[in-house]
Amino acid sequence: MRAAQPQEHICTQLPCWRLIRLWRKALECVRTSNVWSVISRRPELLIFTVLLSALNAPVLFGSCHSSLIFQPEAVREGEWWRLLTHPFIHLTWYHLLLDGLAFLILYHSLIEKSLLCRIMFLLAGAAGSLLCSWNHTGSGMGLCGLSGVAHGLMAVSSLELLGRSCLENRIGIITFSLVVAKAIFEAVTGRMFFGLLEFGLLGQPVAISHAGGIIGSLFAFLMAKVCSPLSCASVWRRRDG
Questions:
Q1: What's the pTM value of the predicted model, to 2 decimals?
Q2: Crossing angle for the helix pair 43-55 and 34-41, nearest 10 degrees?
Q3: CATH number at residue 124
Q4: Are residues 15 and 59 in the same domain?
Q5: Shared domain check, 26 and 102
Q6: What tens digit of pLDDT does each residue of 132-165 get?
Q7: Residues 184 and 90 in one domain
Q8: Which residues pair with 143 in a beta bridge?
Q9: Is the pLDDT of residue 71 over 50?
Q10: What sign for the dihedral angle of Cα 10, 15, 17, 22?
Q11: How many domains does the chain have?
Q12: Both ends of the chain: CA-CA distance in Å?
């Protein structure tokens, strides 16, 4: 014979209630950590993370969402959403790890406060990368991935450091020079600079895509500076004091 437990205690032993309690603890940790401050300042990062996780779930099972990859013929037939989804699709977990982390880190590093400008940098980088890759590969190959966008964001992030402190100014110049030199090398030779790190898990990389991403993002950066110098392109403002 066993003594009956109070109903309230019995409910808390059920798996669903345990899950709810765990979620509450997790949310509390997020609120009291730096993660919450990051999300509050860059709420779109949460959306990007969810998109990357949801759209790339098949890589855990060795496949990918081929219906979301950019295919010229499919776009001509009306599947226009591929233009928007292809950067977020990746072929393998390794592809997702490299591109996804680089993209999220570099996007978070942007100094620009305007959400519209940040999204412009992203979209222009994706467009530049797509146009250069499409022109280079022709119409028979599908395109996907965020590496071109990541290179574009790195170029913009390095320019944002110019005109600030002496140390940041040097870091910006060095970083910009390195990322541009890397992209030029890849565009001229047709080979990835870090090709040894591919391990056959990145599909068939399009070397010129990185240069396209840089060109696109820099174009958006310059347009933002010219069109709205007070709200965008804060690179040219020095810190107070």
A1: 0.77
A2: 100
A3: 1.20.1540.10
A4: no
A5: no
A6: 988 877 656 788 899 999 999 999 999 999 988 8
A7: yes
A8: 70
A9: yes
A10: positive
A11: 2
A12: 76
**DSSP string of 94-159?**
HHHHHHHHHHHHHHHH-----HHHHHHHHHHHHHHHHHHHHHHH-SSS-B--SHHHHHHHHHHHHH
Closest CA to 65 of 46, 84, 45: 84
Q: How far is CA 234 from the centre of its chain?
A: 21
Pair (24, 86) in one structural domain? no
Length of the chain: 241
The string of pLDDT tens digits covering residues 186-214 is 999 888 877 666 666 677 788 899 999 99
How far is the C-alpha of 87 from the C-alpha of 83, rounded, in Å? 8
Q: What is the pLDDT of residues 213-229, one digit of tens each?
A: 999 999 999 998 888 65
What is the radius of gyration, based on Cα positions, of the chain?
22
Yes or no: say if 200 and 227 are a contact pair by the CB < 8 Å rule: no
**Nearest to residue 130, comparing CAs of 77, 88, 188?**
88
The partner residues of 28 in beta bridges, in order of sequence, read none
Provide the residue range defining the domain that includes 229: 42-236
Buried b (16+ CB within 10 A) or exposed e, 53-85: eebbeebeeeebbeebbbbbebeeeeeeebeeb
Place of tokens 């979301």: 68
Task: Give domain status of residue 37, yes or no.
Answer: no
User: Can you tell me whether residue 70 is helix, strand or coil?
Assistant: strand
